[in-house]
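hey can u check if this looks right to u? its 473 residues, i copy pasted from the old doc so theres a chance i mangled smth
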Amino acid sequence: MIQEYQLRVLPEIAANEQRLKEYLSEEKGLNLRNINATRILKRSIDARQRTIFVNLKIRAYINEMPEEDEYEHTVYNSVEGKPQVIVVGAGPGGLFAALRLIELGLRPVIVERGKDVRERKKDLAQISREHMVNPESNYSFGEGGAGAYSDGKLYTRSKKRGNVDKIFNVFCQHGASTAILADAHPHIGTDKLPRVIENMRNTILKCGGEVHFRTRMDALIIENNEIKGIETNTGKTFLGPVILATGHSARDVYRWLAANHVAIEAKGIAVGVRLEHPAMLIDQIQYHNKNGRGKYLPAAEYSFVTQAEGRGVYSFCMCPGGFIVPAASGPEQVVVNGMSPSNRGSRWSNSGMVVEIQPEDFINEELRMESGELAAQQNEQLLALNPSLSSSQLSMFNTQLLPLHFQEELERQCWLRGVDFFSASLLDAGVYQQEIITRLSTIRTQQSWLLDQRSRYDWGRNTYLFPCPHHTR
């Protein structure tokens, strides 16, 4: 017999299957010997009061054992010889598009400008060790996209995304922990995600698809207003319908689209800073305990949302027990991201804190970061892609690309102010001020009782990318 129960238990009970069985036996009147197995279907932490509880939806197997897997399998059949579809980009959008194409009986051909997920790791280490960015292989470009080496969180506040259960099941089918099916804020972890991504690629290849690394789409092939395929930097062309899954950092793609009269529309962006705090401090605040989270609770998260002068201001990509990483995708850029390994074991937590900006805001002179020199440079970039553009067309297309120009110039201005790739991961909220404010003095001012826990070896260092102590500061 299988029974499902809603439970509200202490963290030490939720963390131990035997104690869960004993709790079920006592609270539900079950014979302990008859409870052969349990499965947690949903799990969330209620930290609103001083006593922390874990809410569980649990399935108990009474006098029988589970026969089914914990996740639902998707069948991927061979698509050898089937019509091909070109997928540009091997980030999450591209990989899931390719898997869906296989389900539909179509053969995906993925072209990815960066390297495979394992080779990328060498280029990421080079960013921090040598302060050099490979413009085609970095935290943004390469197999797995920006998320491969920046956390693997699977959570959104949006209610408009539809049912994501299938996505979680596909991740589990390719090696992710089944805990993501139960957790309210699921997380795979930077150290686990590369293997999952490799397994997804292997499924695509096994079914007859193709994956081409170090292959950048340079142009769409358009005939009679119909897309026929793509041209690449390797000189090879790929024919078939095209799915663009290029991500937000592929600015050259959007310039090409604008310059070649492909309809695009500007969308809003969020801009801000990344804040870092001692993980212990966040644990103490969120769990109402001066001793932190203890043995049975995970590193604490927080969420901040408010309105300021009609604009949304909110925390974003909160990484408990994680690291801040330099995320530039080219030279003369400073931009950072956050990540956490699966155990969220770092002594530091970080979060983006951003404000929303809408396309119409860029008409406002206060947000314009252009000069005559920059405007000329932007025109040159578009003319290089399409020399026949008129002055009025250049003006129109540059207006469409204003959010892109703003983002690009903001990252360049940070670089011009003397912030290098590595020290970018050591900044507090003063990143947009003339004077850079270091993290520790700010923390000590606000929390004079907080001891300095950072050693000389873990200043923003990611032990997954740097397994040995790294002495450079």
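Confidence is low (pLDDT under 50) at residues 421-461, 463-473.
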